[in-house]
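Hi U.,

Before I forget, here's the chain from the pilot set. I'm dumping it here mostly so it's searchable later in email.
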Amino acid sequence: NDYSGTTSIRLQVKETSARIGINQVGLELSRIVLSSGQQQRSLEATQGDWERNWLSDGEPISPGDYTLTMDFNGSFSTDALGMYRVSFEQRDYVFTQMEAMYARRAFPLFDEPSFKIPYQLTISAPEDLTVVANTPPEEEFTEEGWQHVTFMATPPLPSYLIAFAVGPLESVEMEGLSVPGHVYVPAGHAGELGFVLRETPTILAALEDYFGTKYPYRKLDFIAVPEFAFGAMENPGLITYRTDLLLVGDEASGEQAVAVLNVIAHEVAHIWYGDLVTMAWWDDLWLNEAFATWMANTVLETHYPQYETELRLPQQFAFMSDELTTSRAIRATVRNDDEILENLGLNYTKGHALLRMLERYVGHDVWQRAIREYVKKFAWANAMESDLWAVVSEESGVDIAKIAGDYLNQPGFASVSVEESGAVSQTRYVRRDLQVENQLWQIPMNVKYKVDDKVRQTYLLLEGRNGTLDVPSDADWIFPDAGGNGYYRWRTSDRHFGNLVDDIDALSGREKIALLDNTEALLNAGSLSLVEYLRVIDRLLQDPHPLVFLPALEKIKSIANEFVTPDNRAAFAAFVNRSLSARYREVGMRGHADDSEAVVQMRPRLMRMLGEFGSDETLIDEAADLANAYLESPGAVEPLMALEAMRIAALYDDGSLYEDYIRAYLASTSAKQRSTILSAVYFDDPGVVVRHLEFSLSDDVQAGDTLRALGFFTYRLEEHDLIYDWLDENFDRLLAKAPAFVQPILPLWLAGSCERRNLDLLQGFFGDRGDVYAASLAKAVEAEESCIARRERHSGEFDEFLAQHAPL
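Structure:
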């Protein structure tokens, strides 16, 4: 479990200094020498704040050129962060995950993104193992059973992008790339890469075309990591992925295909934005992740139109967090590791939504020219958000920094009111009965309206609290978010809203989804009744397009979790069956050769909804049969159908199936099947709950999967006393295994039940456990309080709706 090494750094000291500050955590520095020519000085290390060691011998360090050499000893970590050891299928491996600030766990260095410098690695390992890193080998020799591999020096990199791996890895060449490339996998899994090998060249070519430059590093290798805290990591030359994202076999479809393609495109996009051009400090992590997310979506929309990813709205997910009064600005001063990750999810979603809105505002071609110029200008260097806006503003003639700053430097978003006269006003959106400081945004509005049986468009940059749209006062309706790209909520007159819902097919699929999501926001703000919201849902449940229907289905599922009680469960089941059964009969449980990708994406969730809330006994039995077929032969069932079938089977089981699930999990060598099984444990038997929580802490479950059980049982169990009883006894064990970066967000992981008793348990458990949980606990409490209040306000309306639409 131990290793040793040496770090050697060439320094230029520009001013007389008393000490040198380097970063390291958990290492023993056995020898520290500062050399200049023939002179050597032995330094001692003292511990400082922020995981910094101060190196000094008590004498001043004069200006000049030096070499700092540090011999160190360390132990492999076990939480999938830093330099860590993994035992997989009875073989041992070493992998790395250096972002955010985990390189300092592996070896002593300057571990901040502004130190963008070349690195050259030499790794010694048993000669029968494979050793790979960011760059190709430069020199290799073996001696007494050990191989010593010196890799080529990297181009300038921040420390969080250093990567290497050691173990019994197999590799398969990726053909059709502009540079050499391989996929490295754990021993015995080289035959599971067909889909990834086939599609990666398309993704790389699309990105090279967009940026107008070839891939800038010497090689493009992927590596499937069986123990991984994140989904993937964009290390140049050696991109790491969870095994279940790469080892998907020869074919993938539906949601699985979208997930794999999206992650690959995201990580490879980082090569240009994040690697070639790197943020100066963690304050701009939002842009690093948002840009790669936006770019990946652009690749899928343009090169994989069959998946219709334009019908996925990033702002939907951003709004859920950003509407809280406890939300933070996504561009905020970062002082420590916890603050880097505190807003991570919002960085992806709000940042993506903002970039999409700004791209649409200045125009695709202008935006692309600006991005190309930006990458060219800051290649191999660090850059800040302001540098990007300066280039976009110069190219477009628009002061983008002023617009973007409103969304980046303050939390929340606007609620825009549009009168029939065209008068427009804005205030900060807030849920009912909550108070926030009022704010203003510059809002690029793209507006669609109907007059004289014709649909027209107009535009407005709302720069102050009030403005005026150029629309006729006799318009039938106004839709204030044409294209569905706006990062704001909106409200029109009751007449316009009613006419718009009646004429909903005048909107595009993306616009219909935006309308649906905005309608829920109006409900939460107290501007709309639950019945009106359900009316919009009901309209979209009748939409012929599966991916427009699907968001309405998800809204119904959310409504069910909030409003369904033992007293109205039968009436709700009747409503579900009336609304969904005909469509399910059309698509069936088994796929067909001529199914569109939209149908493939819809089918699993439609089956789940009918199984969980429609209580269709025939479907439940069929789902159990499908689950058994998957356990016996994973290749016989599409993975997402298998997942939902197994969940349905677990929902109606007394716990006896649990043994079958775990037996199959332990016997499986398929990363995807193991992941599917872990995500299907929806049992509510108390004995099974405790057993599975214990199992999640065993060596049979990866550190990155430790919290899955808690998340699923939080959803599955109506009362959470059992969960907190277990946490009271096992919290330290949980923290010891789960990746450190997820620990500050545990309160959010355990929220979402919309039950007062469970909220009290949540607050009681985390309330006195320190500041590390304070931010996420505040968000969780606000979201739960809001949900509870909404249920109390509208439960009577819900029952009336069921009585009218699903009479028993």
